[in-house]
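<given_protein>
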Amino acid sequence: MQSAKKPKKVGTWQAVGGLVAHYRRQAGLTQEQFAEIANLHVDTIRSIEQGRLALQDHRAIEFDELLHTGGALFALVNKLPVQARMPAFAQGLVDNEQEAVAILSYETQVVPGLLQTEAYARCVFESGYPAVADKTADQWVANRMQRQEIWTRKRPPVGHFIIEESALRRNVGGPEIMRDQIRKLIEANEPAHMGVQIMPMDRMPHACLDGPLVLLETPDHERLAYLEVQRASFLVEDPEEVSNYHLKYGMLRSQALSPSESMRLLERLLGEQ
């Protein structure tokens, strides 16, 4: 497997962190003193100032108040594009996703982020461990919804999604949230440039038992593969490796339920909620 690629936008948070450090020093505070008045661990302050931790909107507002910066930090963070707002391990995907002409995605545990409803996405984030603050979850949900704006572009990408049936049977957030989510998947199959297929739980052989996979094609027709496990990710660019992943996806596509069979299964699942 190809080694992880360094995120393209990591320098953005280094710049933001440098500005935080500048304002902190201007206020005559050490990192330890600032951590105390901000009610944060000093390691959190260090991570923000070094660009290893994103400065979320709500925290930027708090820092502006504590450092008397006149709203400068929030004004900067609030203008950052969705790519820069993502956690560093996911930036490689989002950087290319926003300009992609084609996105092929296989998901095993949850509905793909590009097809999630807002309520479903919130439940996914809130079920994470260790738990995140409510305002952080709000920001992540907003980022995910903003990512979905690619489907409203004048020329949206071709999108195809294969989802494990078991992911759809996981009762994320309760019956009402799951009903809305399944309806969104049914609607996602309607445009000519979109497709959703379901991989049934009892189906063998299975070409992608190794885990989830996202394949992207750039405007320059470069093909990329994105692999993610927990909080680590790999953006694969080697043509031979990417070709292998396309072969795996193509085989899985033939093994999954057909589009019409997938829609009938979704209708049945909708009736079971």
